[in-house]
What we know:
It is a single chain. This protein has one domain: Alkaline Phosphatase, subunit A (3-Layer(aba) Sandwich). 29% of the residues lie in helices and 14% in strands. It is an alpha/beta fold. The longest helix is centred in the last third of the chain and has 26 residues, at 317-342. The protein is built from eleven helices and 18 strands.
Amino acid sequence: MLKIDFGTVGRKGTFCDGMTRRHALRVGSLGLLGGLTLPQLLQAEATAKQPLASKAKSCIFLFLEGGPPHQDMWDPKPEAPAEIRGPFAPISTNVPGTFVTDQLPLCAKIADKYSILRSHSHRDNGHSTGYHYVITGRRSTFADGDNPVPNNEYFPSLGSIVARQLGPRSSVPAYINLPHPMAGGGPGFYGAEYAPFVIEADPTQPDFEVKDLAPVSGLSQRRIDNRKRLLAGIDGFEHSVHGPAKVMSSYYQKARSLMTSKEAKKAFDIHAEPESVRAKYGHTQVGQCALLARRLVEGGCRFVGVDAPGWDVHFNCFPSLKTDLIPYTDRAFFTLITDLEERGLLDETLVVMMGEMGRTPRINAQAGRDHWSMAQTVIFAGGGIKPGQVIGATDKTASAPVSDPVSVNDLLCTIHRLMGIDPQHHHVGPLGRPVPLTDGGKAVDALLL
């Protein structure tokens, strides 16, 4: 039974168009074994592809949903008029000649660990359509404001591509979303087996747990054993025939293995972290999601998509940017990178931080910044990149790239290459035609070692 319910993420998840950001609860199934989360998700192992040579084994994708203001964070314009530069001043980083705003003091200390790409640009100013575009590389066929989750019915998302091409590394699912589904993060025509395993819970809460790792409450061991025997009987019959049912039986077994895996339970158990570590990340949603993402890639997950909403800053934005949004993200990213490095995981973990767009150069009459997809900054760390760089530049008002413009598919090609995936690889779509992983584009050579 496929269950998709909808809810809201609270006030910060409401976009400017009046639409409350809807999100699907985890996809669950009682099935024969009780408490399993769509065993098809684990089918990715069956079609894993041989990767190209690369350092990155996993990717953490921090998605600042709503559109972070690049000029108030990574691309300051101190010489511009006040209505463009905003109230924040530039500060030096530990890389000579590289500056960020004074709202990123922690990230300024480790600028030699990441690279700043200031010239990402595209032409989709919508939230849901822009989200779809940057995570699939294809233009949406729906209007902005239509917010099904996932909203990519045909083209697979970046996370689903990584899961299919590289396959799982352990009993931990290859592709995970938290703390709710990414709007464009579905599998498209790849099918439900490449959909994300969704952790639909807030890791800042004391009672946080991944419920899908435990059997349904009230289901006795005797009933579980009876269901195992029933499934074994079906498996015995299926060995003599062909078809989807025969294939699916193996995925029920793998789903049951996830429930009984000590490795998976350890990865999901954020409460095992010392309080000192949790405090370093910050007791915020983005901070604790970043910490959990680190635990998941440490446990073998290939792609963790962290959806961090709240960045649709149209009205009186600077107080919230200064007190909540930027400081929380500054701490989470700084701690994630330093923690990965201390554990020897940074070289094999690609970290990407971006949104679906940037914000307008000029501050509006409501003391906020509006949608602006023509310029955005993207941050890359780990995973074999060349760190300590600023790649590309925008004009004096941060309106558009003036050097090294990077398109959506350039960005996706770069991530694929860093993950050891050939961006020209293709799969046969529902119409029997080859569908390449990216719709053109080329990797950003300056980022590649």
